[in-house]
């Protein structure tokens, strides 16, 4: 593998790791908020077993049970579904599939941007020493003397 690919691979890995970390942090915040809600009113949990029993045959009640469980005892999959809930309610495993695609595409986009910039950088023409001098410059020290004397 050429040396030029290693920075892109590292960039991809770091981007994906950052996106995964951000998702995990957000999930933990959701879980902390849910625990605080349940601590204020522990009786909210009493309805979950009843909904679970009733939800076995009814798809509407099953969805209601999943929503309540996600609100009171969220897991990682519940967090992923919550992220998509404004767009559509998707049953498992689709929220995880969408998140995986989102993360991989984010890493790919970062890699392509990184590679584009690293490929363009060597193509730039080096600046010659004569181009850095401005003959019309009034700053002392450019060609006429020492700049520290002013």
Q: What structural class is derived from the secondary structure elements? A: mainly alpha
**Overall outline:** elongated
Low-pLDDT segments, ≥5 res:
none
**Helix segment count?**
6
The whole-number mean of residue pLDDT values reads: 79
Distance between the termini: 54 Å
- Largest sheet properties: none
What's the number of extended β-strand segments?
A: 0
Query: Helix amount, in percent?
Result: 55-70%
* Rounded Rg: 29 Å
Write the layout of secondary structure elements.
Blueprint (H helix, E strand, L loop, with lengths): L4 H36 L6 H8 L4 H14 L3 H9 L9 H30 L5 H4 L18
Helix pairs in contact: 1-5, 2-3, 4-5
Summarize the structure.
The protein has 150 residues and is mainly alpha-helical. It has helices at 5-40, 47-54, 59-72, 76-84, 94-123, 129-132. The chain is 67% helix and 0% strand.
What this model shows, in words?
Helices cover 67% and strands 0% of the residues. With 150 residues, the chain is mainly alpha-helical. The protein has a domain at 5-42 and 75-119. α1 (5-40) runs antiparallel to α5. It is elongated, with a radius of gyration of 29 Å. The model has no long low-confidence stretch (mean pLDDT 79).
């Amino acid at each position: 593998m050429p040396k030029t690919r290693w920075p892109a691979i590292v960039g991809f890995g770091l981007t994906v790791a950052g996106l995964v970390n951000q998702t995990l942090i957000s999930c933990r915040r959701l879980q902390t908020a849910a625990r605080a809600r349940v601590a204020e009113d522990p009786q909210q949990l009493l309805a979950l077993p009843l909904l679970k029993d009733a939800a076995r045959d009814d798809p509407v009640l099953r969805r209601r049970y999943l929503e309540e469980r996600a609100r009171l005892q969220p897991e990682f999959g519940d967090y992923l579904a919550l992220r998509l809930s404004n767009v559509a309610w998707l049953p498992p495993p689709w929220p995880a599939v969408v998140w995986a695609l989102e993360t991989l595409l984010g890493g790919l986009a970062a890699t392509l941007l990184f590679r584009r910039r690293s490929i363009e950088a060597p193509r730039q023409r080096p600046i010659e020493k004569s181009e850095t001098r401005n003959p019309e410059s009034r700053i002392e020290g450019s060609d006429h003397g020492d700049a520290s004397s002013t």
